[in-house]
Amino acid sequence: xxxxxxxxxxxxxxxxxxxxxxxxxxxxxxxxxxxxxxxxxxxxxxxxxxxxxxxxxxxxxxxxxxxxxxxxxxxxxxxxxxxxxxxxxxxxxxxxxx
Length: 98
Prior knowledge:
Low-confidence stretches: none
Mean pLDDT: 87
Shape: elongated
Radius of gyration: 16 Å
Number of helices: 5
Structural class: mainly alpha
Order of helices and strands: HHHHH
Largest sheet: none
Strand content: under 5%
């Protein structure tokens, strides 16, 4: 494993541990949550910026990312209902990859 990939692996591990401790979760619960919302991919893709931030900032960013993904999922579920005109369009930032 090259040095950058090793740094990313350590960072992801750090994020999992910090999130686990902050939320009172076990590792399996954190991994399930992170998998559900694509958090590890997000952290990996934005490693260069995120690894320079404080622990608290990273935890807040993860929470914000999860909340946004949850909102997007709720919007998708709503849009799948036939309760409105299908001409409605919603633009969602590419950053959240839906």
